[in-house]
Every structure is written in structure tokens, then in C-alpha cells.
Amino acid sequence: MADNIDRSGTPLVEMRDICVSFGGIHAVDHVSVDLYPGEVVGLLGHNGAGKSTLIKVLSGAYQADSGDIYVDGERATIANPRDARKYNIETIYQTLALADNLDASSNLFLGREITTPLGFVNDAAMEAETRKIMGRLNPNFRKFADPVSALSGGQRQSVAIARAVYFNARILIMDEPTAALGPQETKMVAELIQELRKDGIGIFLISHDIHDVMDLCDRVSVMKNGELVGTELVGDVTDDDILGMIILGKKPARAA
Amino acid sequence: MTDTSSSPSPSAGGTGSDARPGATPTKRGLFSQLELDARLLGMVGAFVLVCIAFNVVTGGQFLTPRNIFNLTIQTVSVAIMATGMVFVIVTRHIDLSVGSLLATCSAVMAMTQTLVTPEWLGLGLNHPLTAPITIVVGIAAGLLIGAFHGWLVGYLSIPAFIVTLGGLLVWRNVAWYLTNGQTIGPLDSTFLKLGGIGGTLGETWSWIVGIIAVLATLFALWQARRAKIAHDFPVKPVWAEVLMGVVFTGMILAFVAILNAYQVPSRRLERAFEAQGLTMPEGYTAGYGMPISVLVLIAVAVVMTLIARRTRLGRYIFATGGNPDAAELSGINTRLLTVKVFAIMGVLCALAGMVASARLSFHSNDIGTLDELRVIAAAVIGGTALSGGIGTIYGAILGALIMQSLQSGMAMVGVDAPLQNIVVGAVLVFAVLIDIIYRKRLGAK
Ligand SMILES: Nc1ncnc2c1ncn2[C@@H]1O[C@H](COP(=O)(O)OP(=O)(O)O)[C@@H](O)[C@H]1O
Ligand SMILES: [Mg+2]
């Protein structure tokens, strides 16, 4: 990945010294990560390393016990998902977070419905918008009338992706976005990520697939047992270095 | 409300006007062209069967205007509450307290109109302001109690089952204390008109209401079609649209005609003329027409359907029922939503209490007893899924109507009261079984 990201300015988003614990478990333990415009930062680590918990602090689903978040260099208060959306932080959750009983457009606009002048939800307008964005993301998608429970894993994932992309995200969090996808659809997500970064969007890409990350990301941050092992430029490290970080929790030895 | 899907989105659950990739194009059946769902047809079919069966067994007594009129006014109170129970169950909760809450609201209204307005406010008996004041007070009581339940459930995270099980005992007996355990009556004369046979529109106004209903229905059909065309969505063939319009129009007008056909007994008419110092002309007849309580139910049904399908509140109710986590992650305040849902339930209990006590013409201690079971049964028979996320307002009303038809029909046939309850209980379990099988089939397809 050619690294032409300018990291001299203020980062788009910076999470400093974040701690989250559940009962006695330190799910996230003094972790700091940052993200620049147009950059893709991979978050790697085993299951249970704390990746999802860390980004859920950014998306407002969890509250950090301590630590600060800065957006465009200014301290941001993100108490709930609504706040996160105000900062144009959009999230594709690992669980997709879709209401199975509703159709694609109801899910896409959930919490941000288009309404008529009388304040009623404008389903026709929302469906029209949904058709537009799905036409771009997944041209084969036809099931606009069905509840999303009737969709395949890949189709559901594309609805979740559409929801994150539709509302002009500046900061996009993708928690294992390709988990349910076949090779064809995974390629489409990869292309989408390239397209979005060109627009200056910053992306946190969570994955436990090293190859995904090495192909798509500019930097990787590796977590283990809730702690940050380290953050590296993808161009500076090998797959084995990253594997070592994930498994042993050891930073790669610098060659000169 | 033109679509018949079980989910609030206008398009969700529709029988697929989009070509599905990979599916071979087959000639579509009549029902799918009409975009009617099988569940609704099944319920209507069951209802028609019940009616016809009882009509045969009773030798034509069941489907007389008189009995249909009575059936209608007996259904109203449970049907009103059942619409609220849909929201409660859709959000994965339950409300066991509705019968008791109805009693408390009824007691509050009874005391307001027999003690507070005539004596404390000095308005005397049958003052024109009595009924409006009473209703506002009753609704406020229902709203507050319901919101309190919702707060306990939503903010303190006590399971709704427990909160409302407690409420079942608490509010039944709060009602007792409010009235010192006494039957309260007679109630205000205007208030009584809201209950049933004492307050009907008469033939002319019933026709006017019927025609307005027809126009509103046709307008809704047309509006829905126009919205689809405006966005280039596929629409039903015109003949299907026209057929739906004709069927709805026919049903509404037939209903009005039946209610109008129920004649006021001539002795009663004579007394009415005498009360005004007139004598009744020879051969004069009048039909009862539409009961005002039915108008209340229609208004409730329209408002609740609008909430379910056309408002954010309704969208959030269904989303929360479908996936509470997803709703929360979408920024929906699910705790406050719970308060709202139970508050709506409380208001509907107050309206049901108003109709029920006005129909009886007094408040009694046991008013609304066991209604929680009837209301839950109506919602569930009407297709509300206890697992949450699925349910319709019209389904719950139809469910209430089916339950009441069964009960009244059996009473007419002379089935013992204990056996009636056994049958109703069995029907509830059976209906849910059918529903589970139906859903499995759909899922497997
Ligand atoms: N809501 C929660 N309650 C309790 N423990 C949690 C919760 N969410 C995550 N955890 C715990 O926090 C740790 C990190 O989990 P998670 O962030 O999901 O890891 P990852 O996404 O890296 O697989 C795990 O030990 C997990 O069990
Ligand atoms: Mg995870």
C-alpha cells in the first residue's frame, strides 16, 4: 500500500488512553489510537482482545471509564450513538445491528427517518434513496420489500454498509465487515474502502484476517488482552512481524 | 391503511412485487396480485366460519342486526385495549394489569362525575361539563399509571411481567378504596352515551359517517398508489386496486346498514316523543345506527395504525421489538420508548374503562376482571408475536371480535359458563400453535 497519508496535521480522530472494564475484566486497558483523513487503520487481535469494545466507545455504544476522544483536535463528548452520529462517526457493527423484522430502507434510516412536512415517516422517499445507494453498492440487490431476515448474509451486510456510507460519514468504523461475505462480495468491500478513502474518509477496519489488513490498510494497531501492543506502518512490517505482535504481544525488532 | 403486511413498513412483508433474482417467473396468484397476506385472510376466514356456524346452530339468531349490534358494543372495550397491547407485546413486554387499570380509571371517572364535579365543583348533576372533565381526569390517571409502569420497566429494569403482575393486584384494590368497594351510579347522562345502546348516531348520521369512512378509505388507497407511482415503484394492477376499493366500500356500507337495521323498540320511541310533549306519528320507526363507542374504537384504531405505520414512534417500537440492541445502537432511547408504550396502554385502559362503565351505566368493583387475559388473547390471536417485533392493530381488533363472537355465540347456544371459558382458553392455545406452524412454513420457504 503506497503510503501517501499526510500525518503532520491534526488527526481526524484520536482516542487517548482509553480504559473500559466489565466487572473485573479490563477489556480495554490504556489504549491510544488515531486516524488521519483518507487513512485506513487496521485493528488486529485475537477474539476477545478488546477491538470491538474499543471502537464501541468511539461509536457511543459504551462509555469509557477513563480516557479522552478528540475529533479534529477538539475534545469530543460521545455519550451515546446519537452523539457519535453528530460527529459523522458511522459504524458497521460486527453483529450488523439490523432489526430483522424491518425492511432494508427502514433499517438504513433507523433513527434518522425522512419525514413528510406533517412529521410522518416518508417510506416512499426512503425506499427511493435506498434503491439509489444499493444500486451503487450492490447492484444485484432486489429485496427492498422483504424484512431483512429474508436476506442472505451478504445482502444483510450490504444493508449495514449502506447505512454507514449513506449519511456522509467522515469517520467510518468497520467491525469485521467481510465476516459474512464470499470472495466476490469481499472484493466489493475492498473497492468500496478504496473509493471512500479517496473522498478523505478515515476508516478503522477491524479484522482478524491479516491479509485483509495488509492489503487494505495504511497502518495497523494490534491489541492483545485489552492492551495495545503497538501501531505500525504497513509498509514497514512483514506478515510475520504482525503475527508476532498478535500472538506473542511483541513489537517487531527494528532492522536498523 | 392499504397494505396488509404484518410489519410497519408499507412494503415489508408484501408478497413481492420485485422480481427475485434466481426465481423463475411464475404466474402470480389472485391473492398475491391483491397483495393480501395469508394470515389476514385466515383470520377473516376463521371469523366468518365462527359466525356462520353459530348462525346455523342458533337457527339464524346469531347474525341478526340486534345480535351484531350487541356483539359490536361488547367488543369495543377489549378491542381498544388490545390495540395498545400490540405495542406492549411488540416491544417484548407484557401487561397483566390492564383489567385492573381499567377498574382504577373507571373508579376515578365514577368518583369524578358523581362526587367531584357535582359537589366539590358545585356543577350539580348532568352538567354539560361533567363528561369532558371526567374523561380528561380518567385519561390523565391512565396516562400517569401507565407511564409509571413504563418507568419501572424501562429505567429500573424490573421485568414487565412482575411490574404488571403487581399492578394487577394494586390497581384492582386501589379502585376498591376509591369507591369504598361500592357500586357507583347513576353516571352522568352525557357520559352514558359513550357506552353503547344508550348513545347511537341514528340512521342519517350513521350513513354520513359510513360515507366519510368510504371516502377516507378510497383516498388512502389512491394516495398510496400515487406515492408508489411517483417513485416508480411497482404497483398493483388497476383491477386489483378497484376490487379492493369495492370490497372495502361494500364492507363499510353493509356494516352501517346492519346497525341501522336494528330497530329501536316502538315503546321506547313513544316514550321519547312523550318526553318532548309530542305523540309519535303512526308507523314511525327508527334504527339505532352506529354506537358512539364504536366511533371511539374506530378513532383509536386509526390513530394507533397511524402511529404504528407512519410515525417514528411506531417505527422505533417495531425496531426495538425486532432487535433491541440495534435500536439502541441507532440512537433510539429504548427506555423512554418503554415509558411511552406503557403510557399509551394506560390511556387506552382509561378509554376502555370509560366505554365499559358507560355501557354498564355504573362503576362496579369487578369491572374489567379477567380483561387482561382477553386483551392478551385478542392481540395474540390477531397475530402479535410474543417474541416481539410483529403485530398489527387491525389484527388485534379482529382477534377481539373473534373472541367475543365465540363467547357470545356459546352463551346463545346455552353452553355453560365454565365450558365457555374452557373453549376460549383452548382456542387461544390452538391459535398460537397455528401461527407458529404458519411462520415456520414461511421461514422454510
Ligand atoms: N458487554 C460486555 N459485558 C461484559 N464483558 C464484555 C462485554 N463486551 C465485551 N466483553 C469482554 O471484553 C473483552 C473484549 O471483547 P471484544 O471487545 O468483543 O473483543 P474483540 O472484538 O477483540 O473480539 C472480552 O473478554 C469480552 O468477553
Ligand atoms: Mg469483536
Automatic annotation (TrEMBL), chain A:
Cited Pfam families: ABC_tran
The keyword Zinc is assigned to this record: no
Highest taxon above the source species: Bacteria
Chief location of this protein within or outside the cell: membrane
The protein, known as: Sugar ABC transporter ATP-binding protein
Start and end residues of each ABC transporter domain: 13-250
InterPro entries xref list: AAA+_ATPase (IPR003593), ABC_carbohydrate_import_ATPase (IPR050107), ABC_transporter-like_ATP-bd (IPR003439), P-loop_NTPase (IPR027417)
Species per Swiss-Prot/TrEMBL record: Mesobaculum littorinae
Topology with respect to the bilayer: Peripheral membrane protein
Keywords assigned: ATP-binding, Cell membrane, Membrane, Nucleotide-binding, Repeat, Sugar transport, Translocase, Transport
GO CC annotation, single: plasma membrane
Molecular-function annotations in GO: ATP binding; ATP hydrolysis activity
Keyword Nuclease: no
Localization (cell): Cell membrane
UniProtKB/TrEMBL annotation, chain B:
Biased composition (Low complexity): 1-12
Any one GO CC term of the record: plasma membrane
Localization per record: Cell membrane
Major subcellular site: membrane
GO MF: transmembrane transporter activity
Keywords linked to the UniProt accession: Cell inner membrane, Cell membrane, Membrane, Sugar transport, Transmembrane, Transmembrane helix, Transport
Membrane topology: Multi-pass membrane protein
Disordered, as annotated region: 1-24
Coiled coil: none
Cited CDD domains: TM_PBP1_transp_AraH_like
Membrane spanning residue stretches: 40-62, 68-89, 96-116, 128-145, 152-171, 204-222, 242-262, 288-308, 337-356, 376-401, 422-438
Origin: domain of life: Bacteria
Function: Part of the binding-protein-dependent transport system for D-xylose. Probably responsible for the translocation of the substrate across the membrane.
PANTHER family (alphabetical): ABC TRANSPORTER PERMEASE PROTEIN YPHD-RELATED-RELATED (PTHR32196), XYLOSE TRANSPORT SYSTEM PERMEASE PROTEIN XYLH (PTHR32196:SF32)
Name recorded for this polypeptide: Xylose transport system permease protein XylH
